[in-house]
Amino acid sequence: MDRMITVNVELGERAYPIHIGADLIGQTALFAPHIAGSSVTIVTNTTVDPLYGDTLRAALAPLGKQVSTVVLPDGEAHKNLGTLNLIFDALLGSRADRKTTLIALGGGVIGDMTGFAAACYMRGVPFIQVPTTLLSQVDSSVGGKTGINHPLGKNMIGAFYQPQAVIADIGALRTLPARELAAGVAEVIKTGAIADADFFDWIEANIEALNRCEPEALTEAVKRSCEIKASVVAKDEREGGLRAILNFGHTFGHAIEAGLGYGEWLHGEAVGCGMAMAADLSVRMGYLDDTARRRLVDLIVAAHLPTKAPALGEKRYVELMQVDKKAQAGAIKFILLKRFGETLITQAPDAEVHATLAAAV
Amino acid sequence: MDRMITVNVELGERAYPIHIGADLIGQTALFAPHIAGSSVTIVTNTTVDPLYGDTLRAALAPLGKQVSTVVLPDGEAHKNLGTLNLIFDALLGSRADRKTTLIALGGGVIGDMTGFAAACYMRGVPFIQVPTTLLSQVDSSVGGKTGINHPLGKNMIGAFYQPQAVIADIGALRTLPARELAAGVAEVIKTGAIADADFFDWIEANIEALNRCEPEALTEAVKRSCEIKASVVAKDEREGGLRAILNFGHTFGHAIEAGLGYGEWLHGEAVGCGMAMAADLSVRMGYLDDTARRRLVDLIVAAHLPTKAPALGEKRYVELMQVDKKAQAGAIKFILLKRFGETLITQAPDAEVHATLAAAV
């Protein structure tokens, strides 16, 4: 499995390539075209640095750049202003300038924080994403969403900021815990469900291969997910409308994450459960037939993801959804399913929302 | 003096008007076109809120929006991540959404922090600037630079983000301390010096009227400064090249501010002294004749601005200038003067820089 596939995200002057394949982190040639300045700062965490830090530094060595590394604590609980400031401290401490390239080596938390730091440091420096989890390969690779959490809401502080390139190394998934692999599969399922019925069928047929971390299946899943997301984002870079469909499962999912405290459930687990809830609401409101909902729930279960929501209380769920970024003046917008590949965005009657919440726990 | 002048900053889809005149803060009609959502958050400080907060809230009342106010501590020393977070706390506490408009009511610190908060909150919400100091009216009104300081450097963390409109109320300058008025005149002088010899002559002829805070002179000074800066920024929104000339006096000036600790000297005072130093270096390097340098220094003195630099030590000055955002790989770029209206950007030999530093203290 030495095939490398490149998906191009078409965003005019902000266009960039996503390279997908096995053992890419060590390939100097993939980084060389995207590092213009004289220095590089790698941002990673205590889990990933021992696994892939040396491989990346060895790949960069022939380029003759000044390379420094910032190692952050691992986990969603650290995706906050204090940890972000550690990146700024390191950049200023190493005299990083306006041409210094940041490289995010890690999962979604590292990618989101590094991208946001790159967006803000001296009002913008280049960065490269090297996502090492399936979730970050299929999700944060495309879309330019960067940011941090606030105690009152997830990703509330951030920027739209595009990387120079994404290097999605499928080989890095060999060291990924099974629970995190499943969390990534959740976003793959989401992408099929909202945008491509054929891809949804393919996921159903290949779910065991994905669970077993087979490189060929993973490469295909990452490629199709990135292509679909890239086509949505190219039409709506700053989330004016269409792009909101990518938040299928996220309205309920974000409430679960915020309600339990970030880090208790993985983002993908919350999205898995959130998709089951959104499908339930879709059926209750008469948009989706129950057979499709069952197929979706069965696939979520087959991916070893939760479909039973934590008992936060219905009132708390509604409160949490009202502070979601997609809400306006307290009105919650749900992304619902009509059939695989077709969505709609709508408010929902309180009674139906409460019925879904009651059925989900 | 009821004349209102509008300068349009031409930035395509990010274009916006700057309204300049006396007693504009109370005019509902100036705000109405720029507030689309259902809520407004005013960000101000403990000095300005008692002076103009009620006037602004009264102007907004007829629009029927939910209005909240965040009152921050006053001063450059508070332009940091911790104070920025107070804005985010308030926005999330009041359930501000993606259409909430932020209004910055205050000087440059309030404008920079509010603009940056607007750039980051939910990855971008609209904001209006109501600058209440001369410096912020002529400087931060145009250019979209927002941000905060880091202990190791000024404005190191920020974004380019344009307001919906700027309401520059000349009447608010009546309550401005003389020292802050002078700091604003420093940027007016800078604008004339780098871009428009006729305007420089006009400032020389009207410096006493500006010192006396005469509305007609102030309106003209703000108008010409904004026009000149707008024309530079329109050609170079993200500071690729031309725009760097606006940093005349700032390389030395930022070193003074950082070296003394932010807040010890006002930004405009540091720029005043920094211009005298940059002119000195310009003469030493053979670009500027000494008669022009003397005219500039005389005008800085007439504006009651310092021309004698604090004794930080030459080594420290160089260190501080090396971490300036304009430096690359430690090489310092100076904006020098050839004549009024004409600049050049260059590195300088150590010997000349040290001679300027030695002569300035």
From TrEMBL, chains A, B:
Function statement: Catalyzes the conversion of 3-deoxy-D-arabino-heptulosonate 7-phosphate (DAHP) to dehydroquinate (DHQ).
The protein's required cofactors: Co(2+); Zn(2+); NAD(+)
Primary localization class, coarse: cytoplasm
UniProt pathway annotation: Metabolic intermediate biosynthesis; chorismate biosynthesis; chorismate from D-erythrose 4-phosphate and phosphoenolpyruvate: step 2/7
Zinc is among the record's keywords: yes
Protein name: 3-dehydroquinate synthase
Residues of the 3-dehydroquinate synthase C-terminal domain: 184-327
Catalytic activities: 7-phospho-2-dehydro-3-deoxy-D-arabino-heptonate = 3-dehydroquinate + phosphate
Keywords: Amino-acid biosynthesis, Aromatic amino acid biosynthesis, Cobalt, Cytoplasm, Lyase, Metal-binding, NAD, Nucleotide-binding, Zinc
UniProt-listed Enzyme Commission number(s): 4.2.3.4
Species for this entry: Paraburkholderia fynbosensis
One GO cellular component term noted in the UniProt record for this chain: cytoplasm
Pfam families listed in its UniProt record: DHQ_synthase, DHQS_C
Superkingdom: Bacteria
Binding, Zn(2+): 187, 250, 267
Domain 3-dehydroquinate synthase N-terminal, chain residue ranges per copy: 70-182
Subcellular location(s) of the protein: Cytoplasm
GO biological process: amino acid biosynthetic process; aromatic amino acid family biosynthetic process; chorismate biosynthetic process
Residues that, per the record, bind NAD(+): 74-79, 108-112, 132-133, 145, 154
